[in-house]
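User: Please predict structures.

Assistant: First:
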Amino acid sequence: MKKNPLLVLLAIFGAATVLVLVAIGGALYTAFSDRVPSLANNSVAIIDVKGIITDSRAFIKSIKKYREAKEVKAIVVRLDSPGGVVGPSQEIYDEILATKKEGKPIVCSLGSVAASGAYYIAAGCDKIVTNPGTITGSIGVIMEFANISKLYEWAKINRYVVKSGQYKDIGSEFRTMTPAEKDIIQGMIDSVHMQFKTAVATGRKMKMEAVTQIADGRIFSGEQAVKKGLADSMGGLEEAVNVAAKLAGIKGEPEIYYPPTKKKRLIDLFLDREDEDEAVFGAIKKTLALELIGKPLYLLPLSRF
């Protein structure tokens, strides 16, 4: 039986119309969901930084939103992270400094772990509130490489490299690193380490000599951190909110605002498939620490696995 061309066209048009409406609805949802809802004028917004830090975009988007919201009088950054990649940690730190510059108080609350790159972030805040048993500190830089040349030899695989310069394949996992290459890597590590120490000295108003004495990668409990000048006081998230409210001049009980968890939309079924694949692959890479090999890290090493 022949299909009616008119019915086929109507079906195609109907399906296209549905997709367009779904797309418009998704765009409107995104536009409105990114707005800060109507809040009282005594609000304190809380932003979470969790897990290994490999990307700063979500945090930067959130902090800019709350920095511009007049209803939000102060921000608390809740850190529960062992640190991560240098670049994103520094970008978050810079965004915290920008918030301070505009006069909006920002306080860091240290959770179970707030070490290395997470502490780098905390150093930029007006105040740091830590639990007594929080694992923090780990002021240092680590960069790891693997040499699997024996594995290739066992598998009888010959690998060849064509390069434009002597050091273009520095850190290659297919051969032993030369002393000259180690010196280059160490020089870079020392430079990035100095950036970390400078951020701590500036943010915590400490002398560089005092920071250098404890910036060898060692970790501290929250209680020790307060005694060393790396944190201001002990307490949990609620105490951090109270400290932020006091800095903002809020009288009475502050209204606490947690960003809502985004729900999946219908449009995501059509558009987010690639993102889901990337998320799965990203989780595998994180589990195996593949995306961290060969990168300078502000990271507590034991937290990787």
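Second:
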Amino acid sequence: MNMALKEALCKNKFTYFFISHISKSKRALLKHIIPRSVFNLNKLFRVIKVNKTSQYEQLKILQSKHKGQRCFIVATGPSLTAADLQLLKEEVTISMNSICLAFDETDWRPTYYGIQDVGVFNLLQPSIENSGLQYKFISHTIAKQKQVSEGYYVFPLNLLDHMIPHKKYKTKFSDDAFKVIYDGYSITYSMIQLAVYMGFSEIYLIGVDCNYSLNSPQHFKDYGYRETSSEAVIRMINAYKEAKKFADRNQIKIYNATRGGMLEVFERVNLEDILNKNDNQQLLSKKTI
């Protein structure tokens, strides 16, 4: 019966096009347009303080907490090493995703940890919840789908139109995590926004390889997830360009301390040089005193 109906509709191209278009529009409405509208309405209620008890309230205690300081955002590209983590023990660090799988190799721990993809969270949840980390950021997209323990700082993640296939890869940048964090096709992009919200004015990226080769390791620690899209790198680099624009307008310095990789948006620096420079400055300060 259904096949006969479909064949009849196909013969009338106008009718078939009209019904098909309505069907696609309905799916888009239910999957994307309505959720985004609800998200933006909830954001408005938070901002004008109609809703004073949202799950995002505790983010406020971190706003400008590190004003004027520097931090290192530790991503999990294959160029990262356990030795790098040891070098960062005295620094304020923000890391993510599978970094918790390296904790048996180092006594370094990130100051802040973040995760936003529910699929990645499913693979890592036991390791995350047994990590003992004090500050764990988690997207609301995970929090609404999963039963998670207390101790997470939930952030509102706006996926924009990134769940819909399209050719233009655009995003936005937010300096107010309580209002919104915009998806930039990677957890690293979200952590940069959180770093700005916390007041950091000098941000160093490490382990941001931006290279998802299918013939070599994609992560510092393999955890069963591999990116297969040929567009992944293009999407991420376009997002980082947006972060660079925001940083330049607001006197924020973002440097790339990753060894190798494909990210050339930010000025490259050598991690060891940056850390040695800081050690020398501290030594000089002590001698002056």
